[in-house]
Amino acid sequence: MVKIVPDTSIIIDQQVSVLVQDLYKGAEVLIPEAVPSEIENHANKRKEIGYQGLEELKKLQQLSTEGIITLEYVGRRPKLDEISIAGGGEIDAMIRDIARKYHAILVTSDKLQKEIAEAQGVETYFYKKEVEPISTGPTELESYFSKDISSIHLRENTTPMAKKGTPGHIELIELDYVPLRYRDLDRISKEIIEQSKKRHDCFIEIDKRGATVIQFGDLRVTIAKPPFSDGFEITAIKPVNKLDLDDYDVSDKLLERLSNDAKGILIAGSPGAGKSTFAQALAEYYYYDMEQMVKTMESPRDLNLDDNITQYAPLEGDMENTADILLLVRPDFTIFDEVRKTRDFEIYSDMRLAGVGMIGVVHATRAIDAVQRFIGRLELGVIPSVIDTTIYINNGEIDTVYSIELTVKVPTGMLEADLSRPVIEIKDFESGELFYEIYTYGEQTIVMDINKTQRQDDDKEDQKSPVSKIVERVIRKEVNKVAPHAIMEVSLISDKRALLEIDPDHTGAVIGKNGRTIAQIEERAGISIEVEELEVKDIDNRSPINVNVSGNYLSLNFRKEDIGSSYDIIVEDEYLFTATVGKKANIRLKKDIEMAEIVIEAMKKGEPVYARLRNEDLY
């Protein structure tokens, strides 16, 4: 009986199950324990070759069960460090030792393994992969593309679809009325993967179980399979337009800023809006017109740039390693496509603060959203040092340009000089009009829409401004820390003073010894506070009550003398529900019910919650 020892390469290529039925019928197949260990390591890393190897091992087990071959696992399982340095040849050496020990034929598709085995006197069968010549014609996937088609969408059991047109003028069209089958997609994907291994302009960006991303020339191809997706799917995206900066409506003022002042640029927009196309135009403007050294950080590398601009992928799967190399390369500008995760924002910031001009591509539905994505990820005062210009792209055109500056001032809507603080001003670049202010108030970070504030100032006098609501909310929060069950009403007397009316039982706790507690609250709220005792009487037959959230419950707090009484709960002048005060002088609601959600939403707005003693004679 012929004995054969397959190595990892031939198992991954799934050829052993073929050879034992054609060339080595009835063979005794000896699989070194090192082989499944290496395959398992690949599978744990979510590499497709790991799952291919597992499928082949299952086939061999089935052939053994059917009596076609004899299957045995031999040798020892390699140690973790031996597996981790498999690329150094340790695993291959173990497999050759097994073949020599059992006087078996080593079966491999690895040319180097073959050469070393023969040099050591080990009988070897080398499976030579059929190398097809690089096709000069288009692949089956590429043949779907025609003029103005930007993306192809293929899915099993559905007809092939495509998006046609330019950003802002996209339509979804059907390419064929015949649905594609699994075998069709399998054929197309295998052709793309094989060609990507042969062509110098193609590379596999991501290879995980159920998902493969390939940069195939100027196509970005995403292949999705179960268990990642619920069906076999192939998506290919192609840049439709390649534009110069001159093709955009760039004002002389903006061109001057891009040429001389802008060093931290964000290009924002929704998916398909034309962000990448504009980034390409800007990159080539800096390289050719401004004679600046430009590099890119991309995952995947799908920007359609000239060969003079080097495109970098994550080094060893980590963009931080790429940033380390780029700092040694010393580019004048780096395009980061795209800034998405928290670590991406940190890397973008680190490189900008190191002096590299940065152009970040960010998904956002509004221009301000691009800036807001940095809040919480960076210290607020650092943001203007990292971003100075935001360009919002919509329908393939420049829609909005914001300039970002840091100043110290009293935020709009406040007058008290003591309220001065660092404020980030976001202005329309062309007109200089102030659109947004970002600052901290208490423990909160506020993004204030200036136009909205001014519009509300023009409304009725009794309508609360956003600033008033913020001040009231901060005061309520601070008072609740020292008197969590207090009943209170907060109102703004002027831009300089607020009135806090609180029930007599908690007045002393809020004021504190020698007024220390209220002084601390004033400092945190940034406003002078006048404290008065709240007359617990019906005002329009209703009184304000204290509300707090604890765990999964919302608690509406009353006085001990209210125990057993029924109250109507009123929120924003609307009757909500009626309940009886329990033994602990409160009414408890689960947070996830609709009534509790309405109360919580009102609290977020700074709106008080009222209770009205239910008079049964009226019902």
From TrEMBL:
Output this protein's name: ATPase
NCBIfam families in alphabetical order: PRK13764.1
**Which terms in the Gene Ontology molecular function aspect does this entry carry?**
RNA binding
> What SMART domains does the record tag this protein with?
AAA, KH, PINc
Source organism, top-level taxon: Archaea
Q: List residues of the K Homology domain.
A: 494-568
**Of which family is this protein a member?**
In the N-terminal section; belongs to the PINc/VapC protein family.
